[in-house]
Amino acid sequence: MNPRLPYVLLVGAAVIIFILSCMLLSRGGRWPSCESQPGVVEKTGSTSQSLVFADLTAEEMSQVVRYLQGQLGVPLVDASRAKPWDNCIASVDLQVPAKAEVLRFLDAGGARPPREALAVLYFGKQPEPNVTEYVVGPLPTPAYHRDVTVQKYGGKVPYHRRPTLRGEYEQLGVFLETKAFAAAPTFLREVLEYDGTNVAFQTTVPHGFQSGDRVTWFVLFQNVSGFFVHPVGLEVLVDHSSLDISQWAVSRVFYNGQYYRDMVQLESAYVQGRVSVEKVRKAPWDGDFSSMKPRAAAAAPFPLQFEPQGPRYSVRNNQVLFQGWSFAFGMSVSTGLRLFDVRHKGERVAYEISVQEALSVYGSNCPGGMSTRYMDGSFGLGRYASPLVPGLDCPYLATYVDTHSLSGSLRPQKRKASLCIFEHNLGSPLRRHYSNLQSLYYGGLVNSALVVRSIATVGNYDYVWDFIFYQNGALEGKVQATGYPSSSFLHGDGLRYGNRLWEHTLGTIHTHFVNYKVDLDVAGVKNSLVAHDMAFEMTRAPWSPEQQIERPRLTKKVLDTEDQAAFRLQSKMPRYIYFAANSKNKWGHQRGYRIQITSFAGDHIPEASSMERAISWARYQLAVTRRKEEEPTSTSIYNQNDPWTPTVAFADFINNETITNEDLVAWITAGFLHIPHSEDIPNTVTVGNSVGFLLRPYNYYDLDPSIYSHDGVFFTSEQDFTTCEINPLACLPKTASCLPNFPPFTYDGFRNM
């Protein structure tokens, strides 16, 4: 034998192993990248038409500011630096055109409505300080402005109703640190170990007990991560009703269950040994128990969704197209996420769907907690839309949209990636059936829906706002609450008002209520409200008359007036309630869209309360009224600081007008009770804290429109369901065996704070 032969064989074997390894790696270890394919997107109108609803651009906002600075004849101070006695621009937002004008433009070839802005100005430097609202236009080059305050609200808006600017809160912080705290140096140093930096404040609202008050409790916390659950027991009531900051004063102090006239009295009582001191253990900077830093090391990554052939939806300017759906979206500085001109299969279903308000009413045995009623629209659900984290707040490969707002400053603020749009496979069938009787087959449709999302962080709470579009023509509005629970210092009978969350932390009981405006236009503007339900009727069995049958039957009722269509929170509401069109489907039924509410709300506040009218929308789980341009919203940003004389009282919308064959609006309220518990530490989860509503086609179509979806699956026992031609699921190993292109992670949430 040739002595070189073994070496030759070894070399040959090595070459073969190398080649095979390369082949395996190329086939199994390095999949091809996913390539976008031309999407199946149905055209449903001009994308340029949706711009009639588009948010103001940063340049348009700046143009409005420059115009007002040059035309009003009074100096306008930057709101971020304004004192209470100054004039300033508080906010600039889109002035949505009148519906009739928009419909003439969209549907009848009419002229495009002029593009206008709504500017809210604080006039503190006037003999009679007030808040004034101006409509400014036409954009992008303003040439006129008109005062619409009296037209909208029936009179001037008193200055004390103005939402509190960030600058005023900063001025209050300076007052507390330099004036109030200076009166109690010994107490603060020895009890709170105060060093000028280790205390955080949380404000309460409304400011007092009657119209004209501007008196606020400030609750003190340790200034650490998650400070909301680190109360120190001290709360200070500040009267800042005067426009002269030098006249601000402490009017009451609370510490560990005891009230004092002011900080001077607290200091005196402490020095004399007459204060019951409860020292709080100093927390580290990360908050210790309130830290959201994971307690476990990273492991295998969680499941991710991707689109093997690219997105099946399109986003152009402010319009979205998806599986027969089209709509325009926007972000109001006060009310947040909103939709316009919502269409399915080319036909308008809703003219407007928008968030209106988020309300929380708190209980406690501490003054700050017991007096808190947050109306978050006053702070700004759109203004506080937070930048979204890819892969957590939304799927990593979602489409992220930047938004702009001008509020509390002369310069527009850009919030990168503060709105996201994505298709979401819910991991369950939208519909399916497995037949094992008679014929053998399987048919179904994956429940893949489009989601539009924004998340507003208002103080301690984060609200996840979703609008979800399903392939069967249903649309869902949903909100999930997370963030930190608000807390009080645990003392005395505190456990009557919540649960103990940590050594000195009382998680305070509170409610959540959210209100939506749903302007449905079902097969036209004119609709009626119809209720269907079920009742049992007793009947004799026709084939056996001696036997009785309890038979469910359909009940029907047309709700003719606004009073009939206003359903109180605890009242029984028909289980099927829908907007009915004047047209019928193939089977002779009025075409309709049903409203289905998911809510666990209790009482919002006793109606005898002096402030209840300001939140009277929360009396009703559903109220349907005639649409009026002069009733655009269920509340007002001015209601928060003067709920005793509300600028807008929703209860006045309901005055028994006829609602048969009219342009109607549904005002929907959903809510839940939150009793914070130990699992709310470090913070609250979204699971179980979700409410909202569904809009579902009810005899609107002749059959389920999702049967025309490209995602449908059907095969029989006689077919070869392993082939792509018969079963598209069998194609997945080929069509989805690719690597998605994940762009580098970016986040802009900490810029330009």
Question: Can you describe what's shown?
Answer:
There is one protein chain. This protein has three domains: 49-159, Nuclear Transport Factor 2, Chain: A; 166-290, Nuclear Transport Factor 2, Chain: A; 313-429 and 448-563 and 570-600 and 624-698, Copper amine oxidase, catalytic domain (Beta-galactosidase, Chain A, domain 5, Distorted Sandwich). The protein has a 26-stranded antiparallel beta sheet that branches. With 753 residues, it is mostly beta strands. Mean pLDDT is 94; it is low at 5-29 and 39-44. It is 12% helix and 38% strand. It is globular and about 90 Å long. It has nine helices and 34 strands. The active site is at residues 376, 461. This is Amine oxidase. Residues 305-707 form the Copper amine oxidase catalytic domain. Residues 162-257 form the Copper amine oxidase N3-terminal domain. Its cofactor is Cu cation.
- List segments where confidence is low: pLDDT < 50 over at least 5 consecutive residues: 5-29, 39-44
Span between termini: 82 Å
Largest sheet: 26 strands, antiparallel
CATH architecture of the largest domain: Distorted Sandwich
Classify the helix fraction into a percent range: 10-25%
> Which strand-content bin applies to the residues?
35-45%
The global form is globular
Specify the CATH class of the largest domain: Mainly Beta
**Total count of domains:** 3
